[in-house]
């Protein structure tokens, strides 16, 4: 939250409460929320010794919780028990992602290890519209990353949850859809293939990959029926004082709670269990609680236990979905639907799916920049199939597998897989919509909430007007420059009239993590930008690593203007018109003696403001450019050559580009090369440049207007107080 928002909101509530007593409860709740959040942070997240164990060798004992990447030098996640002289408190979780040097020791999940580690505070790249890795790490208590030299390993120390997951994996590992059954029973999505996640999203079935209220309801209902069936033959010998129905409900509640714990305590599962608990409690006590109060109580308990759950988008999906269903159930017609014909029941079920589609669409667009068109129809089949066939079959298979190695679901698995393959081949599954901001999403959800209540329906026009006004006054610049945070490397996108020019593609790490796919492509899709031209400065991996992915995602033609097809280096010297901009490559005239000095030097110009992109050229080439172009090198925005290395940014070049300008360093945080070099940094400061740095600022966006420009950074836009 930005610095002004918290005191501003509090001051507004105090002012309103002084005139309207109704808001006094809201103010009290707001103050309680602040107190609980700060207390929770200090108890469970804050480490007073954190800065005392980074950037130096420390002894560490930890339990391996996940093998992120196997191999000779595995990348693992560990649950730290002690670092140096500091013991982790029993109520805290401290995780670290580490590159492990294990020699001949083969690590497995559940191993307790000891060794020497060199840790750094967890920090990741920060880009607009991209996945917020730092926020994800905070929510999951990942405090560190670094390297570990393992000196000692203890064998199996698996927890009950680990053993349960291994058992489920062994039970369903041979099935075609084994990964799905594993997710449904454990909530662990680490084994879901990337391609299948995409397919489920396009089909509108992503909710099945999270342990939701549907799973808890099915598990609770089946447990209750099983317990009642098991107890029924002994009803005559059970004491009259024992209510078998209540006994079954309580036992099913306990079993469902165990399932919630074993499946990772996901927020939607917690919500469902708390609401079930309230329902069972009311039944036992003979009390009545409205659906709205039940939902509110569940939300209150979840936030009191973990206020940072508000950062989890799953919370909003879960509660919005249940609130819409309860709203429909509260209607006078819905109660009659349960006593009507099967046709009427099917129609009512279709209404639920349609309502869920409308309610959750804003959240879907915010999260994925699109919506599943087939979701309504597919869920009409998938949910009954899961509820009545798949989930009961999974539970039966689990019970059988506890004593016998028999695969009972082979035929069912084959039929489900065939239907799934047919669905994924359809062309109408997904509609790209584009990005909407968190503010716009909140306003749309507020409008839907107000429209649902007859007493305040007319007032929905107020947020509608605000939303339209916000859109009307949002003036886009004629063009803008995006310097992405891609770590050590570079990737710069120039936007103009809905089209894009891309300079460099960032790195591709181990062939599995591409900056083009993870950073650039999401931005293009979110902004609905048509990529027209691409220049790869030179073939070093930190600049050209994303080239295979550029081609894989059908952007090969964008290379044609400057590199030709097939792609070749160095770039050709030419000038092209890009709307009202001019893109001109001014170097090299021929390949130089090394890749760095063969970098394609590019100028982007609108007639008033100019951007200079020099790649990794070094001082010898800078001297040649200065001699050849002189004052023509003058530019308003400069990407620092070679990431701020002292082999580049010679004083004559810095002066030729011009004083009182803007320079951007594209580099990684805690780089091994210690970039930018202090001598180079001082050189730009002495020349009165405004300095930005992707390692410190995240993605840098320069919005260029006709008479001025504005600079925005992702860290200022997206940072929360506990991440600073």
From TrEMBL:
<protein>
    <submittedName>
        <fullName>DNA internalization-related competence protein ComEC/Rec2</fullName>
    </submittedName>
</protein>
<feature type="transmembrane region" description="Helical">
    <location>
        <begin position="203"/>
        <end position="227"/>
    </location>
</feature>
<feature type="transmembrane region" description="Helical">
    <location>
        <begin position="20"/>
        <end position="41"/>
    </location>
</feature>
<dbReference type="InterPro" id="IPR036866">
    <property type="entry name" value="RibonucZ/Hydroxyglut_hydro"/>
</dbReference>
<feature type="transmembrane region" description="Helical">
    <location>
        <begin position="274"/>
        <end position="291"/>
    </location>
</feature>
<dbReference type="InterPro" id="IPR001279">
    <property type="entry name" value="Metallo-B-lactamas"/>
</dbReference>
<feature type="transmembrane region" description="Helical">
    <location>
        <begin position="297"/>
        <end position="328"/>
    </location>
</feature>
<dbReference type="InterPro" id="IPR035681">
    <property type="entry name" value="ComA-like_MBL"/>
</dbReference>
<dbReference type="InterPro" id="IPR025405">
    <property type="entry name" value="DUF4131"/>
</dbReference>
<feature type="transmembrane region" description="Helical">
    <location>
        <begin position="444"/>
        <end position="468"/>
    </location>
</feature>
<feature type="domain" description="Metallo-beta-lactamase">
    <location>
        <begin position="488"/>
        <end position="669"/>
    </location>
</feature>
<keyword id="KW-1133">Transmembrane helix</keyword>
<dbReference type="Pfam" id="PF13567">
    <property type="entry name" value="DUF4131"/>
</dbReference>
<dbReference type="InterPro" id="IPR052159">
    <property type="entry name" value="Competence_DNA_uptake"/>
</dbReference>
<feature type="transmembrane region" description="Helical">
    <location>
        <begin position="242"/>
        <end position="262"/>
    </location>
</feature>
<feature type="transmembrane region" description="Helical">
    <location>
        <begin position="348"/>
        <end position="368"/>
    </location>
</feature>
<keyword id="KW-0812">Transmembrane</keyword>
<keyword id="KW-1003">Cell membrane</keyword>
<dbReference type="InterPro" id="IPR004797">
    <property type="entry name" value="Competence_ComEC/Rec2"/>
</dbReference>
<keyword id="KW-0472">Membrane</keyword>
<dbReference type="Pfam" id="PF00753">
    <property type="entry name" value="Lactamase_B"/>
</dbReference>
<dbReference type="Pfam" id="PF03772">
    <property type="entry name" value="Competence"/>
</dbReference>
<feature type="transmembrane region" description="Helical">
    <location>
        <begin position="380"/>
        <end position="404"/>
    </location>
</feature>
<dbReference type="InterPro" id="IPR004477">
    <property type="entry name" value="ComEC_N"/>
</dbReference>
